[in-house]
């Protein structure tokens, strides 16, 4: 069933990839008993609200042309780990401020036999300062307001590279509130990929931005970003 629904995304999984997703689910549920990683534990919901939702990003860009990506605040690995399973050539960097999540992802990467995964226990705004203009793509799912995550993520994107922000039904309001951030960071919205998850599991909008040119001085310290968003 999952395999059939993925045809909507033009994705066909081989046997190894299907096993990787099964292992991912089983380990997530097992680990979740000792460390709270997700409130979603029903198998069907995990497969669609986490796995399918993550893979929906691949309809917004040609991931065969993306060499490396950074995932801010990935939590239990969403969206980058499902994308990495489907596109194994990707070099993936995950930055998360909680060590318990990084510990889970270290063990998960071993179980899934994934290579070229960089797991960083650090705050995104601190990591960004030493990785400016470094990634073809940066993503941030369920991390915070659009204006906030744009300031955290855009500085790490290479000029002409991409930033993807998966959002829910209030995405237009956040977009409107982020006009100044886009202007300051020399970034442009190029796609609003809106859709509904299978089985009425919710509305999504994957917002795709392109960075036109580098702007120095960002990101600012988090307290400053939070107090006075761009």
Automatic annotation (TrEMBL):
It comes from the Bacteria. It is found in: Cytoplasm. Keywords: Cytoplasm, Methyltransferase, rRNA processing, S-adenosyl-L-methionine, Transferase. It is an enzyme of class 2 (transferase). Transmembrane segments: none annotated. It holds the Pfam family GidB. Specifically methylates the N7 position of a guanine in 16S rRNA. HAMAP family: 16SrRNA_methyltr_G (MF_00074). This is Ribosomal RNA small subunit methyltransferase G. It comes from Alteracholeplasma palmae (strain ATCC 49389 / J233). The gene is rsmG.
């Amino acid at each position: 069933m999952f395999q059939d629904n993925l045809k909507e995304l033009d994705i066909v999984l081989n046997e190894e990839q299907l096993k990787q997703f099964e292992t991912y689910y089983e380990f997530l549920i097992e680990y979740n008993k000792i460390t709270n990683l997700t409130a979603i534990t029903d198998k069907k919901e995990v497969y669609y609200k986490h796995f399918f939702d993550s893979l929906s990003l691949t309809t917004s860009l040609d991931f065969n042309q993306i060499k490396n990506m950074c995932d801010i605040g990935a939590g239990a690995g969403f969206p980058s780990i499902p994308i990495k399973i489907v596109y194994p050539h990707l070099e993936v960097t995950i930055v998360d401020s909680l060590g318990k999540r990084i510990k889970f992802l270290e063990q998960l990467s071993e179980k899934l036999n994934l290579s070229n995964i960089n797991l960083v226990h650090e705050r995104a705004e601190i990591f960004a300062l030493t990785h400016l203009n470094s990634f073809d793509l940066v993503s941030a799912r369920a991390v915070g307001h659009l204006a906030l995550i744009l300031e955290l993520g855009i500085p790490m994107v290479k000029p002409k590279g991409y930033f993807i922000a998966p959002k829910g039904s209030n995405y237009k309001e956040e977009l409107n509130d982020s006009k100044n951030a886009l202007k300051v960071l020399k970034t442009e919205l190029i796609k609003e990929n809106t859709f509904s998850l299978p089985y009425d599991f919710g509305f999504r909008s994957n917002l795709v931005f392109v960075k036109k040119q580098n702007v120095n001085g960002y990101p600012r310290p988090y307290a400053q970003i939070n107090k006075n968003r761009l």
